[in-house]
Amino acid sequence: MAKWGEGDPRWIVEQRADATNVNNWHWTERDASNWSMDKLKELLLAVKVENEEGSCEVTEVSTLEGEASINNRKGKLIFFYEWNIKLNWTGITKCGVTFKGHVEIPNLSDENDASEVEICVSLVKDEPNTQLLAFMKKEGVKKIRAAVASYIATLKTEFTQGMILPTINGEPKEQDAEPVLKRQPQKVPTSNSTTQPQTAGVKIHTCKITLKDAFLTSPEELYRVFTVPELVQAFTHSPAVIDASKGGKFQLLNGSVCGEFLELDPEKQIVMKWRFKSWPPEHHATISLTFIDKDGETELNLAGKGVPAKEEDRTREGWQRYYFDAIKQTFGYGARLF
Known about the structure:
Radius of gyration: 23 Å
Family: Belongs to the AHA1 family.
Number of domains: 2
Pfam families: Aha1_N, AHSA1
GO molecular function: ATPase activator activity; Hsp90 protein binding; protein-folding chaperone binding
Region (Disordered): 170-199
Domain Activator of Hsp90 ATPase AHSA1-like N-terminal: 29-161
CATH class of the largest domain: Alpha Beta
Number of helices: 5
């Protein structure tokens, strides 16, 4: 990929206060390299895992080489990033014995999803073998992969603010606007429509759904995946609005899903009002997610009630595909289905 500043000058337009890039037609470019270095160091240096054998943590980012940039062409954002990363990690057994090792991420780039990024863990030369190495290769790599996914998601949301300029009408293009939580207007069908309007007092036939799955991670980490905006954006690959508090609203998958948190019991349970955009106006199902620790895995039980009967299969398949399977693929939590 071309280095920052080496783009064709005939196509690149500088950011200007008078917003002359009308309708975002010309190519604009923003260097994200320095921001990315700071963000990657922040996320990777926070990696720490612990079990009955001891603890392991990333202690140093020894090499961070590469670049990142974002381009806007006709209102579409295009992301380029390529990084070679080397980390140092330290493991300490419960008996106080210290081991040192390395982590190498040779090619973190826009060509691969976070789940596909190669992460190599090793001990320093001449260090004796230890169970902490296997622990770091399994649980440590999961945390590092989650940090990488968080970087990618944040790059595509936080750093892109202001990249899409107002159009000739003074408003951003609809698909690039920041998601806003709002009430869904009730549609009134035309006289020749075969669909009857859903109004108060019209009975909606509903059903219950259940799902059960296992994830190779702790309840604490899996709970965070559902409540931390950057992690939600990582597995949905789209902007998300998440207010993880009782009564807090959420919106994800480009507005296809929205709702409200009713109960939040960290590491144990999430209860929410939840709906597809296509459901009858203002109708929500109640979805409960229960997290159960199963010796290194987390069993996740979903119970849903109030799901429109006609949407039963779609809702069940949507949760399996866009939540459960996407989380496993993004963060490497894959496990057998029950």
